Amino acid sequence: MKMTKLANVLMGLLLLGVAACKNAETKETPNGFKYQVVEAGDGIVPKQDQLLVFEYVMKDSKDSVWIDTYENGFPGVIRIQDTSALKTEIGMMQMFRQLSDNDSITISKPAKEFFKDVLGRPLTPEVDSTVTITCNLRVIEILDMQKFNEFQAKLYEKRKGKQKSKDESAIDKYIAEKKIADVKTDTSGIRYVIHNNAGGKKPTAASCVEVKYEGKFLKDEHIFDKNEKIAFSLGQVIPGWRISIPMLGIGDSATFYIPSALAYGPQGYPGAIPPDAILIFDVALLGVGDTYDQEAHSCK
């Protein structure tokens, strides 16, 4: 499980939250799950089928942050079920029924209890069973489905702009630290370095291309994929490749720094590409065709 460190400002807010917990009110759900209300909201609890939207930071007693929705831009969302589900719900789900807009709460439990009562599953082997896990949570909206859809659309637009700026800063920092020269910037936000220009035929965004490439993560330079020769239609690959590869002619090579929104975005590619990953591709264009030949696995 990947961990990140809290920003100084956020850490300050959490420390204030810890201090406030000394005066917090302890509440309990019907099945005995206890939590502390650090700051009370408007007192109006959600109704059946409403969605409770919340920001939260989850960290352990070794000061490793597991999830920080303030940083990743994706708040948690819980739909309130009908009361027939109440008796089988875990403590955390029962707690959500009791929260109101702008409630701020803290939950702190030993790892095994936290997994059972908060996450609803057994402790996983890779987690240190001796740590205590704390979740600081604040309700930001209680919405019906229609308003939630509007909220989500606005959230994605806001996050897209924020992530774009974050990616551009990370790419520029990487380029500066590595002292990479002759870097150009495309209007899409892709940074690139052309290594040689043979003047060969260039593809369009709909062409079939044959390339040699190596892909790695900007964050740690880990190589996640490479191929000496592969053919594909540019219409079937990530936007970053549809934009960048037509910059090359046959015989050309380049390095492309592709922002996450033009790669695999916030969803990533399970098992291979993490969410919001910025990718670096070293690419050589070997050939160009009009269509992809399924039998020969080449361009024609």
UniProtKB/TrEMBL annotation:
EC number(s) recorded for this UniProt protein: 5.2.1.8
Protein name: Peptidyl-prolyl cis-trans isomerase
Signal peptide positions on this chain: 1-24
GO molecular function, one term: peptidyl-prolyl cis-trans isomerase activity
PROSITE patterns given in the database record: FKBP_PPIASE, PROKAR_LIPOPROTEIN
Record family assignment: Belongs to the FKBP-type PPIase family.
Catalytically driven reaction(s): [protein]-peptidylproline (omega=180) = [protein]-peptidylproline (omega=0)
